[in-house]
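To whoever is covering the structure queue this week,

Two jobs came back overnight. Logging them here so there's a record in the thread.

Job A:
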Amino acid sequence: MKLKILFYSLLSILLFSNCEQKKEEDPIKANYLDYSKREYQYTGGVKMIPITTPKGTFKVWTKTVGNNPTIKVLLLHGGPGLTHELYECFDGYFPNESIEYIYYDQLGSYYSDQPNDDSLWTNERFVEEVEQVRIALGADSSNFYILGQSWGGILAMEYALKYQKNLKGLIISNMMASIPEYNAYAQEVLAPQMDPKILKELQQMEKNNDFDNPKYSELLFKYYYTEHILRKPLEEWPESINRCFKHINPNVYVFMQGHSEFGITGNASLKNWDVKDRLKTLTVPTLSIGSKYDTMDPEHMKWIANEVQNGRFLFCPNGSHLSQYDDQKTYFNGLIKFLKDVDNGTFKKG
């Protein structure tokens, strides 16, 4: 009897000490949702950040999810002029890995101020906006990552080229480093894959600047976006994506990108953008994400990973432009591994 009591006592001690050890091993997970020491506990993580611009001070919307002192990922949405809603699926993956991430609507986008002044829509000013957001969030090179997709990838590259000293890691998702090469890929590789009749109809409307014709958007979404933006029938697109498109600021979008994702059209300000020759100066750990069916050439994305000094390439074989949705497991497994490897000091390029 005494031996039995002794056995259970020892077992209880072992189990208790094991629980204590686990608790000590993962303090970040234990405190991940603790906002008690943060100024925005009252707002549930939302912080309106004042941004100084040449045209005055405006506010941009951010929302922090989680609490991790060594991994803070600022999400730079695409468009330009779209919203943070593109990233809502991150809620299904990052919290389980104790990764802190920050939703952010850039100036001109839905939850942020929307000044009506085209002079504000420049790469240089957006870079300074991101830097002001970083400072306001209290992030630095010990914990600050930026993830930019599409236009957000342009902004991420531009930010890193000026401020990589403030970064711990850089993620370029589904964005080439040259708009002329992006246009060439759209016109020479993707366009010929379309039904010739549909392509001819789209090209004719573009030639006539008939972008407000409902037929233009209808054909673009049905025959191009479902192949290269998000590879699902339109009726199966996630509600967050439909909401994001609904909330677009067309003034910012058209001024910088043009009227469609079918290449940069008209006199859009981004049409000659190219930083290929400058990428070799980046030393910060970098993940470049490309997808088989993307509007962006996956071989170019692989080239980016090799061109920067500490790059890694993630290929999504079933993905398109929004591969966080249509090749989700590949996307998040590779992204989370990159963040953890950089955080643990085990990152290797390749």
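Job B:
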Amino acid sequence: MQSFHLTATGHNLNYLPEYIARRHGFFQEQGLNVTVSIPTPWDGVLDALADGTADMALGGIWVPAMYRDRVTDYTVFAQIANRCPLALLRRGHQANFKLDDVAGKTVLMKSGGGASVGLFFKMLLRENNIDPRSVDYIQDLDGVMLGNLFEGGMGDYFVTDNLSARAMAERNPDISVGMEMVSQGDIPWSVYYRESATITPEVFDAHRRFCIGLGKGIEWVLKHDAESYRDELGELFPNIPVEVAITVTNTFRREGMWTTPTIPRHAFDRWQLGLADARLVKEPFAYEALVNEPATMA
């Protein structure tokens, strides 16, 4: 059995098929003993790639794009999350919420896990012809801190992960979910990558086998209603009410969070435009500049 170590930026519901693949033996079927570590702070994933203690990193594709031709070149070889796993919380339960309701208001956005939250939300505003400058942001604080402050009265809206948003709305009758962003189109939200210079034929073959196991994990999740493995969800996410985890999992299944390990070109191009508009990259990268997918060789 070949050791294969993953360094990840967090433990999230949108990574569920990977957890299922590990727990159900799909990686072992490919001869891989997959282990995981989550560094604090999250950018320790880059250190683990640099010193060779990790075979790959899991996180946002904006990092390989931002670093390309500036610091270190990374190659992306698969995705796990095909949609954005965020939600927008609001005060009250007004009907017919519209995204342009946020104009002129204050939006809290967690940033402890990187820049993805602000990048996506502002891109979504631009895509809907809403000037991001028409909104005030509080986004340089930890997500738990911002959640407590939002419940305490700070701001008008709060962008956080869907699971936390649903849990907050369940326990606080004065707060509701205005938008689940999983419904807002394809985007390669969470991807696997490695330093390009370290990829050998042997490494690429291990990536290929990892992608086969990951694909089986995705297929399993798509075939099984979350209610049928509530105990497993409870073990994976013990701090979230299991009914919330079940509801969000089934929403993700229905809305296209998980498809295949292959990154769709249209989704890649959409996110690259968003990163360029945010000035993280000078101009959008071509697909082949960042992506080399052994998933297509399964």
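Note for Job B: Residues 201-223 form the longest helix (23 residues).

Please reply-all if you pick these up so we don't duplicate work.
Q.
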